[in-house]
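Dig into this one:

. . .
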Amino acid sequence: MNFLVIGGGGREHALCWAMAASPLCDTLYCAPGNAGIAREATCLPDLSVDNLDGIVAFSQENAIDLVVVGPEVPLCAGLVDRLEAAGIKAFGPRAAAAQIEGSKGFMKDLCAKYGVPTAKYRRFRDPVLARSYVAQQTGRVVVKADGLAAGKGVLMPETKTEAIAAIEQAMIKGAFGKAGAEIVVEEFMEGEEASFFVLVDGNIAVPFGTACDHKRVGDGDVGPNTGGMGAYSPAPKVDEAMHDRVMAEIINPVVQGMAAEGAPYKGILYAGLMLTAEGPKVIEFNCRLGDPEAQVLLPRLQSDLVPAMFAACDGVLDQFDLRWYDEAAVCVVMAANGYPGAYANGTEIKGLDNLADLVDVLPFHAGTSADGERILAQGGRVLGITGLGDTIKDATARAYEAVDRIDWPDGFCRRDIAARES
C-alpha cells in the first residue's frame, strides 16, 4: 500500500519510523519531511503542510491508500475533509472535531456541557472585561489564547499584575496574532501533569498510552513554555485505577459528546491532564499525537500501527486491541541556542554516526536538512533522542549517553528530563 505522512517534525519522523516497519507498507512519502525522515520515506520538500490543494492532488496522482496528518494546523484547516471529499482515506479528525484543539473556548464549553472535570473558566473577547474578571479572583489564574499558538499560547502569571499584563500581551499587543483575539481565563490547578492518549473511531476509544512532558525551556521547569523539551512514558502516576477514572470521567464522555454534537472524533485524541487532589481534570485536548510524546509512545507500541489507523478510520475499533512493550522510553529534545526565542538556522550537527553502536537508542529528527553528507539545523527543536530501558531511570541514562556523543555547540538540551522519577 502507498502511504503519505504530512509534517516534517519529530512526531512525523516517529510516525514514518513506525509505518515503514509495517508489512503493509510498500511506498511511504512524507511532506515536507526532514533529513532523518529521508531514511524512512521519500520526502517531498516542496509540498508544505498548508498546501491543501497540493496534498490532495499528490494523493490522487500517486494512488495514496492512507494519508496520516501529523500537525494540528492542517487538521484544523480541514485537510481530512478535503481528502475524504476526494475519495482518499485520511487518519485524523475533520475540521469540526479538530476544534477541540483549535479553540480552547470550544473545548471548555464541551467539557462544561458534558460534565467533564476541568478548571473553572470564562471566555473573553473584550480585554476590559477580562481585566475586571481577573481583579475579582482570589487565587492564581491561567491565561490562554483561544486559537492555535504552536504550544506557546498558555501564560501562567503568578500575580494579578502579571495576569493583567498577560491579557494585554495576548489581546492588545497581539503576541499570538488572531489566536489571541479571544482568550480563556481559568483557575490555576495544583497537581501533577500527565498526558493520556486514545485512538478513536468516532464512537469507541482505545487507550494509546500515557506520558509526561517538560514544557518549560530550562532545568527545574523554569523559563518560557516551549513545544516540549522532553518526555517519558509511561506516566507512573496513571496507575490502573487512575487510568479507569480517566476513561470513565473524561475520555468516554468527550467522545460521546463530540458524536452528539454532530462532530464525531476520529484519530488520536490527546488529553493533557492535571491529577489533582479531587481527581483527574482536563487542562487541554490536542487533536493529534504530541511532539515529543510520539517519540516515546510509538517505540513502546508492539502492535502494527497501520492496521490500528485503518480501524480508526473505518469505525471498527470495537474489535481491536493494542499490545505494548513493558519498556519505558525517555526522549531528550535538543534545541537551537536561543529557542524558544530567536535562533540561528543552518548550523552543522556532527556526531550522529556515533550513535550507531548504541543499543535501545532512537534518534528522531525534528528540524533538520541535509547538505550532502552534512546535517544542518533548521528550526527551534531540532533532534529528539529517545532511550529505551527496563525502567525510566535506565531509559534516561541511555538517552543522555547518546546526547553526549552528539557534537553540536549551537544547540542545548535540558539535563533533567524524567529526573522527577529517578
